């Protein structure tokens, strides 16, 4: 009975020590990897937004040409267009 309790206490102590060491190691390593992942995601989102805006501008030019809309008249209404707040 005493041997079982002794081994239980030793096993518990080793388990607590191992978990504590792993948590400390994870805390040291996690911020860098999370920061890098966040930067990659933010960069991908910015790139996607730039591509969408470029595609929209290209399509708008195609539509204006197809409909015969004068671009000079469209620039007179610049106050109604949204600004890029990036």
Shape: rod-shaped
The number of domains: 1
Structural class, by secondary structure, is mainly alpha
Largest sheet: none
Instruction: Give the C-alpha Rg.
Output: 30 Å
H/E element string?
HH
Q: Poorly predicted ranges (pLDDT <50, ≥5 residues)?
A: none
Please characterize this protein's 3D structure.
The chain has 86 residues and is an all-alpha fold. The chain has one domain. The protein has helices spanning 2-67, 71-75. The longest helix is centred in the middle third of the chain and has 66 residues, at 2-67. The protein is rod-shaped. It starts with a helix and ends in an 11-residue tail after the last helix.
Q: Quick gist of this model?
A:
The chain is mostly helical and 86 residues long. The chain has two helices and no strands. 83% of the residues lie in helices and 0% in strands.
Which structural traits does this protein have?
86 residues, mainly alpha, 83% helix
Topology:
Blueprint: H1 2-67, H2 71-75
